[in-house]
Specification:
By secondary structure, this protein is an alpha/beta fold. The protein is 19% helix and 10% strand.
Amino acid sequence: MQLHQLQSISHKGKRRLGQGHGSGRMKTAGRGTKGQKARYDIPLDFEGGALPLMKRLPFLRGKDRNKSMYAKPLVISVGDLKNLPKNSDVTIELLTKFNLVDSDEALVRGVKVLGQGELSQPLVVRLVVSKIAEEKIVKAGGRVEPQSADVTVTA
């Protein structure tokens, strides 16, 4: 093998500080002399002993700390109900059977029907319904009844 046949090395390894005399960075290990920064790692958010910024801010801080206590219901539109059988009782069970909502999430959060889209066949809706959706369901010949007591929505 000759010198011009060697593979070129374009990647230098990471500089390892504080690894003794054999590392090529003797004595102070590339940290300069004395002082706080020469002795140990300082957190990036350290502000020299002053009260940190995060403690100076009001309590509305941090990621997702102040989400609503109650989860909002799953939303489904009136137009999505057009594929259901005629005169059927629209409940969470029927919607999960037709893969319109996820059963676990719907039982926890509940389902609300909104008035987007059109409906042609009559249905009996036993869910929470908006005013416009209720008008469209009644116009199609169906009716809206209060949600049955056997389905408890916990939030």
